[in-house]
Design goal:
This protein is α+β, with helices and mostly antiparallel strands. The protein has a domain at 65-239: Cyclophilin-like (Cyclophilin). It has helices spanning 90-101, 127-132, 175-179, 190-197, 211-217, 219-225; strands at residues 68-75, 79-85, 112-113, 118-121, 151-154, 167-170, 186-188, 232-239. Strands 3-4-6-5-7-2-1-8 form an eight-stranded antiparallel β-sheet.
Length: 263
């Protein structure tokens, strides 16, 4: 979690001048013009007084996730649901399942929101928990799906096997992340993406909180310097992901006169 390595982007993306740890640099884009602040006032959730003590022992949180499951995020901006398919990235799905099961993401902030690129979260609101997960990485996995809009993938550095707890939500189709080895494991429901799009993004990508400081000081650090950032009130398991509706059987054919083919 507290990694200071600069992320090196492969291919044509170049090197980000102020890259965060576990953060890919976005593709070159046109200069961003000043945007009007989003309407509405975000309601801030105060961190709970305590956290699940099981989070202090990552090596013991090894439950296998169901083949599909859903996670409901209740945030200061609204609610959205993530559907996870284990076959897409089994290690990533299992890690996410255990983190959510033990409320790792509760009270964590969306500390990096880059319109047209990604939303990033996944540093604990509690420094002892961040310290426990600092080196609890999982191995890389083949990229089965694609980093399309709404899909979730783990943040990682340019070094192999550095996925841990941080997550990206793709704000657009980011095929460049596929080539860099980012393996999607879940997707936000279409209605929920409207909530994700409203997350506060006016601080700018280069003026946001420092990840090292978040890990060391928790949510109090963010609330002091970046009070408008949205956060996760709770992230909880809510059941299996819905399956695609089966095709309806074709109606029996009745004897009808054969239609003439067009000449």
């Amino acid at each position: 979690m507290r990694k200071l390595a600069i992320f090196v982007v492969a291919g044509t993306l170049g090197i980000a001048s102020q890259a965060f740890a576990q953060t890919p640099a976005p593709a070159p884009a046109k200069p961003k013009t000043a945007a009007s602040p989003k309407t509405g006032t975000a309601r801030k959730a105060a961190p709970a007084r305590s956290y699940d003590r099981a989070l202090l022992r990552p090596a013991l949180l090894k439950d296998k996730a169901p083949e599909t499951y859903q996670v409901k995020f209740v945030t200061t901006r609204g609610d959205f649901t993530v559907s996870v398919t284990r076959a897409w990235a089994p290690l990533g799905a299992d890690r996410f399942y255990n983190l959510v099961k033990h409320h790792f993401y509760d009270n964590a902030s969306f500390f990096r929101v880059v319109p047209g690129f990604v939303v990033q979260f996944g540093i604990s609101a509690y420094p002892p928990v961040s310290a426990a997960w600092e080196k609890a990485n999982i191995q890389d996995e083949p990229v089965v799906g694609s980093n399309k809009r709404g899909y979730l993938t783990y943040a990682k550095t340019s070094m192999p096997n550095t996925r841990s707890t941080q997550i990206f939500i793709n704000m657009k189709d980011n095929a460049s992340l596929d080539r860099q080895g980012f393996s999607p494991f879940g997707v936000v429901d279409p209605q929920g993406m409207k909530v994700v799009e409203m997350l506060y993004d006016q601080y700018g990508d280069s003026a946001g909180p420092d990840q090292e400081q978040i890990s060391q000081h928790g949510k109090a650090y963010i609330d002091k310097g970046w009070p408008k950032l949205d956060s996760i009130k709770s992230a909880t398991l809510v059941g299996a992901a819905p399956e695609a509706a089966p095709a309806k059987p074709a109606a029996p054919k009745t004897a009808t006169p054969a239609a003439k083919k067009p000449q």
